[in-house]
Amino acid sequence: MLQLNYSGHKLEAGTDEAGRGCLSGPVVAAAVILPDNFKHELLNDSKQLSEKKRQELRPYIEEHALAFGVSFIHQGEVDELNVLQASITGMHRSIEQLTITPEFIIVDGNKFKPYLEISHQTIVKGDAKFMSIAAASVLAKTYRDEYMEKIHQEFPQYNWKKNKGYPTKEHREAIRQFGATPYHRKSFKLLPEQLKLEL
């Protein structure tokens, strides 16, 4: 059962990201502040939900949240920053977009850098424990999936609409056959035996 609040502060933002382990596309982060009467029986860690349920939740979260923000850190910036810093930067940018300043921030995972002067707490598997982090995980995942489906049209041979840029066997096979695209992360090991891939 997900809890609504960690800190006791009324304006508590939850933040999470999607796409850290992908070979292509952006890291997408989201931040959400929920009202204290928020509930939805489907809400859970986005990884535990079907695509259909995530799609159902997204408009509900956007309509009922007190504030939400979503940010994209594209592959060039992921390469520049490294994926952990890209995730934290994405979370910061999502919090920046909130129309209400949070009094406290709860973060999925165990790494974060302070945002302004606002107190925060990192929570391992927070997306399976707290509603605002779960809501942020649903937004990050649905926005990212939508983007990957869009760029799939440009490069259908990688089947991003299905694998969403994750290192599936099929995705790696396509990289082996067709090489890397501008959407691939150059700092990632795209192929297991990769010594030097022509980029």
Automatic annotation (TrEMBL):
Residues 10-199 form the RNase H type-2 domain. It comes from the Bacteria. It catalyses: Endonucleolytic cleavage to 5'-phosphomonoester. PROSITE patterns: RNASE_H_2. Its cofactor is Mn(2+); Mg(2+). One of its GO terms (molecular function) is manganese ion binding. One of its GO terms (biological process) is mismatch repair. Keywords: Cytoplasm, Endonuclease, Hydrolase, Manganese, Metal-binding, Nuclease. InterPro entries: RNase_HII (IPR022898), RNase_HII/HIII (IPR001352), RNase_HII/HIII_dom (IPR024567), RNaseH-like_sf (IPR012337), RNaseH_sf (IPR036397). GO terms for cellular component: cytoplasm; ribonuclease H2 complex. This is Ribonuclease HII. It comes from Tenacibaculum caenipelagi. The gene is rnhB.
